[in-house]
Specification:
Layout (H helix, E strand, L loop, with lengths): L4 H15 L8 H28 L7 H11 L7 E2 L7 E2 L2 H5 L7 H15 L1 H4 L16 H12 L10 H5 L12
Antiparallel strand pairs: 1-2
Length: about 180
């Protein structure tokens, strides 16, 4: 199912509504756009990962071999693990972190995820998520960040199905702009 530009615009406005309690309007884009791009990357990676698993389910590959095959033949970028070797180890994906929104330290996990994606893909995503100061609890309380993420999660998966024109050509409809 294709996602319409109107659906994306509605979710972005809903996310902005969640941010009203925590920060000035001028700062919304520093939160919403990195989150939206992270969700897009995660959805795209997950779809491709599922394709890889389905097409290679009969192969008897070690974890290292599977990783090599997946990243050389399927994936165009990496979504690495964060906190490897610890109890908190998880993929730096939207869905992994969304599953933990009720736990303390959400901003730290989001920041670790975005930094891990940038570090794993320096030729593609170096510094793409910006300074990420908004991930600090002092700037954006965890409850507000959780609310924004839940709201943005209502955007249908597979934003990759959108044309590049929709993603690059996003503009705020004048009917939704605040009147001054």
């Amino acid at each position: 199912m294709a996602v319409t530009q109107q659906e994306i615009e509605n979710r972005l406005w809903d996310a902005a509504d969640e941010l009203r309690v925590a920060m000035p309007e001028a700062q919304y884009s520093s939160v919403v756009f990195p989150l939206m791009f992270w969700k897009y990357l995660s959805d795209t990676w997950e779809h491709t990962h599922q394709t890889f698993l389905k097409e290679n389910e009969d192969l008897d590959l070690s974890a290292e071999e599977a990783d090599e095959v997946e990243y050389s033949n399927y994936q165009t970028f990496k979504i690495p693990f964060i906190f490897p070797g610890t109890v908190a180890e998880s993929r730096a994906s939207w869905s992994s972190i969304l599953a933990t929104v009720a736990q303390h330290g959400l901003g730290q996990r989001v920041r670790a995820s975005l930094q891990a994606i940038e570090s794993a893909n320096p030729d593609k995503f170096s510094r793409i998520f910006g300074s990420m100061t908004w991930t600090s609890e002092a700037v954006l309380p965890g409850e507000v960040l959780a609310s924004v993420m839940r709201t943005m999660n209502r955007v249908p998966q597979r934003l990759a199905a959108l044309s590049a024109r929709v993603i690059r050509g996003y503009s705020v409809p004048s009917s939704r702009c605040p009147q001054r």
